[in-house]
Amino acid sequence: MLKLIAFALIPFALVAGNATAAKGGPAPGVVAGWDGTVDASRAVRYVALPADSTTAVAAVRVSDGRVLRYTTIRGAYGIPLVAFDGTAEGISTDGKTLVLASVGANQSQTRFAVLSTGTLRLQQVTTLPGVWAYDALSPNGRLLYATQYLGSGANARYNVRSVSLVTGKPVGGAIIDRREPDEEMNGAPWARTRSANGAWAYTLYAKPNGTGFVHALDTAKRRAFCVDLPWRTSVERLAAVRLSLADDGRSLELAKRGGNRLAVVDTTTFKVTAYAKP
């Protein structure tokens, strides 16, 4: 059974199925055990099993299920989820860095454990004040991109920030779309896909008012673009939309799960061509 640990300001709990943050914002949380996350080569799967005060971490060969390495670290951590469709990440594209996110009810701080994939040795623990959620890693694993919540509630506003995994401190201010510097970020992430080189993270967000947007985050150059979608529909229908890249990454396709194409985003100009409403 898929077990998600809600990234919420509620007592530590294992929750079956998708979980929204009751008071900490619309973060998907982390996954304990189950499928974990797979590296870019799809050769090794990493799984985290948190207990009360420690977490067991294992590297498992995908081809035959053999456990290659394992370790135990202090603190309760899980593999970070980046969308409510169950997409998990946490491994840098170069395959050298694994980042785990803390679990539990701690409004005052959030912790990220940084491990070397080659040895599963704990490199450092990055502690940030307040409520944060994992968003992405840069291809070389030196920058963590995280969502910083600015308030409480399911519709809390938030900023996307970059954090150095060398110093453990945020780098610069909020990463915004410079074309719309005053636009506030809110909404919940429902789908994610990455470019082949791992630099771009494309995330579909659904807002409470029935609109949606694609957040295009360039993890190599610390920049972002928000692409508004020309629809107003229910959150449930937007949540059923999936993302995929085509034309060697030049096009981002939005389609119903197992269905027809709904829209295409040009990943160079970010122009949207819509074909149907979800």
Please describe what this structure looks like.
- The protein has 278 residues and is an all-beta fold.
- Helices cover 2% and strands 46% of the residues.
- It is globular and about 50 Å long.
- It starts with a strand and ends with a strand.
Shape annotation:
globular
**Largest β-sheet summary:** 7 strands, antiparallel
User: Low-confidence runs (pLDDT<50, min 5 residues)?
Assistant: 1-25
Mean pLDDT: 88
Distance N to C terminus = 29 Å
In total, how many beta strands? 23
Q: What's the gyration radius in Å?
A: 18 Å
Give the helix level as a range of percent.
Answer: under 10%
Secondary structure class reads mainly beta
Provide a count of the helices.
1
Task: Write down the oligomeric state.
Answer: single chain
Order of helices and strands: EEEEEEEEEEEEEEEEEEEHEEEE
- Our estimate of the beta-strand percent is over 45%
Q: Strand arrangement, largest sheet?
A: 2-1-3-8-9-10-11
